Amino acid sequence: MKYSSKVNWSFAAAIMVSVFWIIGDIFVAGFDPNPADYPLFSKTYADQVNVEFATLMLEGSTPRLMFGALIGALTGPLLLPATWLVLQFFKDTKTWYSVGVYWILLTGAVLSPLGHAGFFYVGEIYKAIYHTDSVAHAYLLETGRGFMKMLNIAWGAAIGVLAIGWISFAVCILLNKTLLPRWMALLTPFVLTLFIIPMKGLLPLPYSGWVGGAIFNIAYLTFFGSLLIFFRKKLNRM
Prior knowledge:
Strand content: under 5%
Shape: elongated
Number of helices: 9
Oligomer: single chain
Largest sheet: none
Structural class: mainly alpha
Mean pLDDT: 94
Number of strands: 0
């Protein structure tokens, strides 16, 4: 395959995976509930659960949560060409810092599907607690703690690694180690996420929940979309 074709297909993969993961985030975690509406968790079991997560997905049906988890997990391989695309924008793709950023982002991409899918199990276990007799709650709460621990490890590891990778890439842009203008550092996913977070509080329901659930992947779509525009303009000047 020609290099130009690889780049084009990688852009297609990057845009597609960003859209798929936004959809997945909205379906699996795109809620903005008021914990006070669920006193079983906000009061009765407040000292035994993470109240925010325990109430987050109570309104989601099992098919909805499953679809949201699977569309992200099953399209995870598209993150690999998207990550390769980032490497192509370094002035020298063989330096220690370009290779380092690439492998950090690649590691984060590989870790992400498990963390994303984990939301389904957390949502389902707390729905089970909410809809069953209290005699079963002790066992289900213990299971829920295990699911939350799994989610925290899997999702936390993915987000942590990706944050390191994207911050490093932003620094490389600022140090003029890439083909991108320095202002593009503001559009890298981690930095852009910091600008999107405050938007959630300005939006009405259900949009606040949608944005809150999909913040990082909205940043991904914005970044890769901007990268595509920059790439096309660069080609037109040549």
